[in-house]
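Input sequence (464 aa), recorded before submission:
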Amino acid sequence: MKKLLFILSLSTLIFACKKESDAPKETPTTSTSANTAPNKWIHEVMSYYYLWNDKMPSLASTKTDAKPTDYFYTLLNDYGKTDRFSWIDESYTNLQNQLNGVSTVLGVKNNAFYTDDTRTSLAFVLAYVLKGSPAQKAGLKRGDIILKVDDQTITSTNYTTILANQTLKLGLGDFVGGAFVSNGRSVTVTKVELQTNPILADTIIAWSGKKVGYLAYSQFLTSFDDSLRAIFGRFKSAGVNELVLDFRYNGGGYVVSSDLITNLTVKDAAAKVGKLMNKKVYNSTYTAYLEKNAGASAFETLFKSEPNNLGTLSRVFVLTAGNTASASELVINNLKPFMEVILIGENTYGKNVGSFTITDPNKRWDYGLQPITFLTTNAIGASDYGTVNGFTPNYILADNVLPYKTLGNPGETYFSKALSIIGTVAYQPSSTERTQKYTRTLASKESFSDNKWLDRKDMWMDPK
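Predicted structure, token format:
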């Protein structure tokens, strides 16, 4: 945690928001509203750090008596379109838990499918189950099907909220002959506070004369950086010379962890140490402060040595979907100038901007602000994926082929496509796993969790 997520040497330098001496100073107010003081502080720090501070309304034109958590959103630039990402939390502690993958959850990520052509009833098909979660302990796994929640049918109007209760009775089903059918079983599961383990699966397989490493990763968390290094160490020891990164369920996370995967993957890593990986762009106000106090190092991220870099790759395969966002997209953009990046799946989310947390240094209020504060470009200055179209895949697939195979199984739809490009030999399932496959209609292109905070799309720096 005690790392700056772009450049470690700046950990005590660049974050003026954490220093009372550097923070914007408040001017006295005569208003009697309890909300005026915190709202005035919010306006001042946003004017200093917010990427689009030149688009903010003046203080005088805002309603400073509004609830601060509402007031914050009135300051954003074209909220919901240009700025789809900034947020505020009443509790800084709660916000930090979100950023570090700590949430109260069942531990499931779902894809919602229509059960028939009327498109009224839905089924949840589990995309993955978090390790150590209540769902896993209840025996649930990827590919399992939920048809009812608390004895209610899942519909197109309730499917985004039906998992909100703390304890849930999940009515299970099967996928038989292309149809969703109840199997009469149910499990009752209670949510608990859980630290996300983002490593969903990793494996190595021999394929068409190659050693293929596969990693499914759901969130960039610094607490799992050493686990990533260990996985790449195993890949390297095994002679992996093709790599598949499964980011289709990864909405982002810490930039320093994104940079780590870049360093572990990039072609000819030794020759790149000390050279530019990416750059950050801030607003003119904050840029002036950084130029004066830190210089170029505040803006540039350089490649560094990672002993477990594979060293043999000329290309990398990245599996993508609508959930692939922020720090996941940053890996793609980081690597594109240096090696072939083959995207398989659906268009990514489209987020080339990030944030750091702002809190009141005087501890008068507990608000945690997470506004967009920077934009990223790669080593050649490219940053053209920050639209709702994101990156367009080289090979288009949807996550709508049932029944699901386990992540890392060569017969799983996305992984199988990558393998078919690596070698032309088709995967031949064993007799015990050979089943007919069916394409069914998804209700949403994005998968979702039982806790909405796990679905946030972001990349952030840690100011500590």
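Checked by second reader. DSSP finds ten helices and 25 strands in the chain.
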